[in-house]
C-alpha cells in the first residue's frame, strides 16, 4: 500500500512538472511569412524593454526594503520599510521604520528619495576606543581593525548596502508618522 502511494505521488509530480515545462512565455507574433515585415515592425510597435536587467543600474523595490539608513553621525536610524511611487512610476518617497524593538512600537517616517545618499560600500566599522594609556594618531588603530573580508576583492554590488540621510534618529522620532489613505 505504501509503495502505491509513493509511486502515485511521484507520478503526479512528474505530470505536474511536464505541464509546467510545457508552458512558455508569450512570444511576439512571427513574421516569417514575408522578409519585409521585420523592417516595418520597429516603426509600428514600441520596443519591448530588455528582460535581463542585471548590472544595468536598475533596482528592484523588494531589494531596497530592509536596507539600513544611517544619520549624519554614522549611526543607524532605521531601515527602509516602503517605497512610494507617483502615477508615472517615479519613486518619490522612502519610508524609514524608526524606533521600537523588533517592529513593536516603531513608526514609519517619509523621506524624499532624493535626500537619501545610497552607497554600495559597507559602513566602516567603528574604530575601537583608545587604550587608557592614550594612543597617538600615528598608530594606525583605525586601519588595523578592518575585518579580513574587507581586504578581499569582491564583485560590484547591484544594490545599495545602506543609505545616509541628514536627519538624526531623534529628529526622525519627532517627525510625523506616515499615514496611507485607503489602507
From TrEMBL:
InterPro entries, per database record: PRC-brl_dom, PRC_barrel-like_sf
Range of residues in the leader sequence: 1-21
Domain of life: Bacteria
Transmembrane domains' residue ranges: none
Ranges for region Disordered: 23-55, 121-183
Residues annotated as domain PRC-barrel: 60-116
Bias (Low complexity): 23-47, 142-157
Protein name: Sporulation protein YlmC, PRC-barrel domain family
Amino acid at each position: 500500500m505504501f509503495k502505491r502511494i509513493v509511486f502515485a505521488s511521484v507520478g503526479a509530480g512528474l505530470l505536474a512538472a511536464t505541464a509546467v515545462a510545457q508552458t512558455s512565455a508569450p512570444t511576439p507574433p512571427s513574421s516569417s511569412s514575408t522578409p519585409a515585415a521585420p523592417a516595418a515592425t520597429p516603426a509600428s510597435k514600441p520596443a519591448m524593454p530588455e528582460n535581463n536587467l542585471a548590472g544595468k543600474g536598475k533596482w528592484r523595490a523588494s531589494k531596497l526594503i530592509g536596507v539600513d539608513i544611517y544619520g549624519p553621525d554614522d549611526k543607524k536610524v532605521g531601515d527602509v520599510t516602503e517605497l512610494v511611487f507617483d502615477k508615472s512610476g517615479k519613486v518619490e518617497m522612502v519610508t524609514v521604520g524608526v524606533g521600537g524593538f523588533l517592529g513593536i512600537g516603531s513608526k514609519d517616517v517619509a523621506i524624499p528619495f532624493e535626500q537619501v545618499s545610497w552607497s554600495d560600500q559597507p559602513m566602516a566599522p567603528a574604530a575601537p576606543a583608545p587604550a587608557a594609556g592614550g594612543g597617538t594618531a600615528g598608530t594606525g588603530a583605525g586601519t588595523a581593525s578592518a575585518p579580513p573580508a574587507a581586504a578581499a576583492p569582491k564583485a560590484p554590488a547591484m544594490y545599495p548596502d545602506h543609505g545616509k540621510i541628514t536627519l538624526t534618529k531623534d529628529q526622525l522620532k519627532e517627525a510625523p508618522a506616515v499615514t496611507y489613505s485607503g489602507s
